[in-house]
Design a protein that fits this description.
The complex is a heterodimer of chains A (about 425) and B (about 350). In chain A, about 60% of the residues lie in helices and about 0% in strands. Chain A has 23 helices and no strands. The longest helix of chain A has about 60 residues. Chain A is elongated, with a radius of gyration of 37 Å. Chain B is about 70% helix and about 5% strand. In chain B, helix 1 packs across helix 2, helix 5 packs antiparallel against helix 6 and helix 6 runs antiparallel to helix 9. The chains are: A mainly alpha (about 425), B mainly alpha (about 350). At the A-B interface, helix 23 of A face helix 4, strand 2 and helix 11 of B.
Chain lengths: ~425, ~350
Amino acid sequence: MLDQDGIKMKSVESRCGWQWGLPVTFVFCTALLFAPISFAQQAKNSCLDCHSQLDPPLHVSPDEYTASIHAQKGVTCVTCHGGDPTTDDVDKSMSTAAGFKGHLERKQVPGFCAKCHADASYIRGFNPSLRTDQYAQYLTSVHGKLMAKGDTKVAVCIDCHGVHDIQPPNDPRARVYPTNVAQTCATCHADAEYMKGYKIPTDEFALYNTSVHHAALVDRGDLSAPTCVTCHGSHGAAPPGVASVENVCSTCHVFQAQLFDSGPHRNAFASLGVPGCITCHSNHGIQHPSDALIGTADGSVCVKCHSAGEPGFDAAAKMHESLAKLDSAIGRSDAILNRAELSGMEVGEAKLAQSEARDDLIKARVSIHAVQSDKVDQNVQAGLAVAQKTYQAGLAAMAERSYRRTGLFISLGITIIVLVGIALLIRRLESGSGN
Amino acid sequence: MGVAANIRRWLDERFGWSQLMAFVEHKTVPRHPFSYFYFLGGMTLFLFGLQVATGILLLLYYRPSPNEAFESVQYIMTQVRFGWLIRSIHSWGANVMILTAIAHMFSVFFLKSYRKPRELTWLSGMILLFLVLGFGFSGYLLPWNTLSVFATKVGTDIAGQVPIIGHWTLVFLRGGEDVTGATLTRFFGFHVAVLPGLVTLLIGFHLLLVQRFGMSVPPSVEADWKANPARVQEMRFFPNFFLRELMAWYIALAILGALAAFKPWELGAKADLFASAPPGIRPEWYFMFMFQTLKLLPAKVGPIAGDLLGVLGFGIAGAVWTLLPFLDHEKRGRGSRWIAGAGVFALAYFVGMTLVGYAAK
């Protein structure tokens, strides 16, 4: 029975295919041609039609809006502003009867955005992994607290995320994309006139741009490198307190923090009421640390607190000396190995071993955070032992090079003697024979 | 009777030693302004012998597996007594041998030594040249360093462009779709067994033909000697020519020794098959003209892919060049001049494109 039906169906299909194929194709193609028009009619948006023609601040760019995450997720003008986008009649489309809310005051913005973004069940329908605590965090931030006090100059959602052109944070076009965050914060925080009255510096952005963190993030493209929000938080933005600076830095610099905690500086800093980490390294303008940072020379940070004759002063001098010793030993080995390599000697193994010495130097530099010279020396001695071996390997390679060249000159001498001998032999052979 | 005389008599009774010596003593080599080109063949043969000798020594330590190849060459270069010398002479010698083989080919071409009855001598010589290039290509991979692995990828990719048999050739050369350890063992097999066997047989055949027909004299010299038989000059092969050749060999050996001492052949970094190709990948100098041409060709030339067109062009040019003796029958004349012109163009193209390839970033 099924088979019979199947055969019947097939015969009908084949007839249709031949007899109706052309008209059906024509209708289908016509439908496709007119489809965009019908879709456009469905998606009529009189808000955008008008506001795309208006001058700022009422202007809305259709391109920016349609590329925004809201437009892509179906969040339209009406969702935030209310009104009726299906009519071109301004009185109707922007009437209170149509639910038009009009322009929002700045102080209304965070709560307004939170209507959706703090609603976990609503947001889950768009992106289940998107957090919904932004508003709660904002209320705890310096921005949120000042806003609650009536200061409307502080940042609200749209200052960082934009208004009609909002992009998700992982979109490189977004103002909150890691490489754009500092510039976004700087819009206010680097504006001395705007920040007048807040009694905070406005050189953070300029300093940050010179920092090792900026170099890692922007120059090297390492998106995990810190920017403003990494240390201050984003929605809950606030400066870390003296007690919490170390906790902030230790989210990345784990070993340094552990060593700092194990050393005498922790309690000393606490008793002086100075923060860890930034007391020596500074905050926004952190530079790549050099061995000059430790020690007793003018550029070192140790002399800020320690004076000659104190145990801390001597320890600083000793640690600097140890680091310099290992650094110099590695440099010496590098120099001879490079010379040997340029001479064509195979020193691959010794160069590989050099990386061990470099690792020891890095470990020694990290162990400085415990400010215990014996811990630093332990790593330095290990590195020195490796550097000594690699230096010996370099010396051996250079000796081998000399040996080879001496051997070459001796063999060349023999070769020349043999060649002269053969030439003389040929001459003697041919002197009488004519060939 | 002395020991030497006894040995000579013993050999004479069994192998006709005296007849052999008489033949060698009577063998002559033409003497004219272009006689120096006769050294190139012998020089190539000497370098081949040197490659065999140094290659056997390297085999004592080399291990043809992806896990051990690089380390074994590193061991040869650093730990084995005079290993650096043997490996450097092998590597430099290979390049010099290819250079002399190419120079030998061009000298034979321009002196028109391929003419009747020496067609087979030219043909066997051309096949030998291709096999020598195969030696170079297969040997380049054996140290298993980054440059060699990626250059092999590029080289086998080019082989894969050949129509119809291209993909099959690529899989055959690589031992699979990609360059892996299977490619290394395969190339090792080609390098130390297949190619030496074929080359030894062909060298024997080539030398037999050279012996059978003697040294060719350039047409201009031949015409002059025909007109003035009194001007014919010859040199005894042994010892006169042989001693001169020996001097050339000594000089070659001294140059190779100097190169080994002052510029030992690099080892590079061990290959990592999962790493991306490093910048500046290029083949050995003798493949550079082809590589550079393929680089300069556009993606499409009309309906044909640029790479395919290049490979086909080189294939056809190589085939025509190999079959040259069967196409050029004239000693002198318009056709002959055209062929000489084509040879000049080929040489200029080879040198020019090689230089451009090295100058290009």
